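Practice problem 4.
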């Protein structure tokens, strides 16, 4: 039966190093298995796309033992001429050879390593059958040859280019506060680029959800419901084993659920007199429940917002050491609960004090108005 060998090049691009490896392989074309003797391979390639870097033998070398005997020499190769590579493998026997060549598995001869010069180029890495030959065993005499069957190289543009790295980002938008639950829905989109394989993205906004995607996916919508409205800044994140992670910040809507505080007392106390001298001792005070902060301001001023207001202590608030108004002056007591939008207001009038009696003959009278 005729001994016929198929040849192929198994290419592999290493994007981390920018190198392209080409493993030279052979197998039997048909059912007839055989061994080879001293042989030569000649390949051509595009020198504008690749440049030779190194060669490493895989089989048919000094490490290959045939019946326990080291019958193969170290591979002899020449890659010094741009665009060509030739290899000689030498067997020091005319009767024994190994490994056996069958049609069930490819046998690697060796691997050529190139540096990629032009990622858009075509390697055009092809065997030259006119200068490639395999001696048959037994004989190994240069006269009896193994025929060449199918000979395949790498002749395709694009195999030298690495895919762009995967990218990931996201945007999120908080909806309006829902008064019945004091909650909101967070909606957004994950943008993902260069997804050549299926994968999953894990999105976290307090709780986490995992979303699968198909190759070529560019966007992944998501939403979280039932998030508590608190008016604060929050972070939503997305992670993917291949593309890394990204985050976005957003501001939740302010609380829209309000149980306003109550005011049980709102009292103004006029300034005191020292004879005919009026003291800066007027005050406005109150007692409340259910509140946490407060402000007391004349009605001709803007009430102090929640963030800058005064913390309540034991439900009481006081604005003291006020000067005596020349005419009755109205003050606004505002008691907050949790936010700038949840409060109760109460107006109280601070009366003007008149001090027209000498201290030696007057008995001080304090008038308090409760409203």
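Answer key:
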């Amino acid at each position: 039966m005729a001994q016929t060998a198929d040849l192929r090049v198994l290419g592999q691009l290493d994007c981390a190093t920018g190198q392209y490896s080409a493993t030279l392989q052979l197998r039997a074309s048909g059912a007839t298995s055989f061994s080879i003797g001293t042989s030569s391979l000649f390949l051509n390639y595009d020198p504008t796309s690749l440049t030779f870097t190194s060669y490493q033998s895989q089989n048919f070398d000094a490490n290959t033992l045939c019946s326990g005997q080291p019958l193969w020499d170290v591979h002899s190769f020449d890659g010094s001429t741009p665009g060509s590579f030739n290899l000689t493998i030498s067997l020091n026997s005319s009767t024994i050879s190994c490994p056996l060549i069958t049609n069930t598995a490819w046998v690697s001869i060796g691997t050529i390593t190139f540096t990629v010069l032009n990622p858009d180029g075509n390697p055009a890495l092809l065997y030259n059958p006119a200068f490639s030959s395999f001696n048959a065993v037994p004989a190994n005499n240069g006269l009896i040859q193994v025929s060449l069957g199918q000979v395949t190289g790498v002749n395709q543009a694009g195999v030298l280019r690495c895919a762009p790295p995967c990218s990931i980002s996201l945007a999120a938008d908080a909806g309006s506060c829902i008064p019945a639950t004091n909650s909101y829905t967070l909606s957004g989109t994950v943008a993902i680029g260069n997804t050549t394989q299926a994968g999953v993205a894990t999105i976290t906004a307090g709780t986490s959800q995992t979303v699968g995607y198909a190759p070529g996916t560019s966007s992944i919508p998501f939403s979280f419901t039932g998030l508590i409205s608190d008016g604060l800044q929050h972070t939503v994140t997305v992670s993917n084993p291949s593309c890394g992670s990204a985050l976005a910040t957003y501001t939740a809507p302010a609380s829209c659920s309000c149980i306003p505080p109550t005011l049980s007392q709102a009292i103004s106390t006029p300034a005191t007199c020292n004879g005919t001298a009026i003291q800066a001792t007027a005050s406005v005070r109150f007692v409340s429940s259910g509140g946490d902060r407060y402000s007391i301001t004349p009605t001709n001023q803007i009430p102090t917002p929640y963030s800058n207001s005064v913390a309540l202590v034991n439900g009481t608030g006081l604005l003291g050491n006020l000067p005596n108004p020349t005419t009755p002056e109205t003050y606004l007591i505002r008691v907050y609960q949790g936010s700038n939008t949840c409060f109760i207001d109460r107006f109280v009038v601070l009366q003007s004090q008149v001090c027209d009696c000498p201290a030696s003959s007057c008995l001080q009278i304090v008038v308090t108005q409760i409203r």
